[in-house]
Amino acid sequence: MFSILSTPKANGFILLEVLLAMSLIAGAWVGLCNQYQVMALRFVQSQEKRVQIREQINQFEISQAKSK
């Protein structure tokens, strides 16, 4: 009795399945890393903006206190 998996066509099909699975996993991993980088960049930008706004508020409050 011959096994279906021992034929070259079946082995090629299994190789194709493995390559497809690996490419799907790699694509998902790259997409996840990209999303993480975008999220980290937005977080840093929002923190910088928050610091800038806080400095402007402090300058405004100081100028208001001096004018009184």
From TrEMBL:
The chain crosses the membrane at residues 12-32. Keywords: Membrane, Transmembrane, Transmembrane helix. The keyword Transmembrane applies. It comes from the Bacteria. This is Prepilin-type cleavage/methylation domain-containing protein. It comes from Polynucleobacter paneuropaeus.
